[in-house]
Amino acid sequence: MNAEWIVNEGARDLLLFFNGWGMDRLVADYLQSTDFALPDHDVVVLQDYGDLQLPPWLREAMAGYRSVDLVAWSLGVWVAMHVGLEGIGRAVAINGTPFPIDAGRGIPPEIFRGTLENWSDVSRNRFERRMFTGCPTAGIDAVRSARKSAEQQLELRAIEASVARLAGSPAPPWRFTKAVIGARDLVFLPENQKRAWHDVPVTEVAGMPHFPFFNMAGLQEVFQ
Question: CB burial class (10 A; 0-12, 13-18, 19+) of residue 118?
Answer without folding.
Answer: exposed
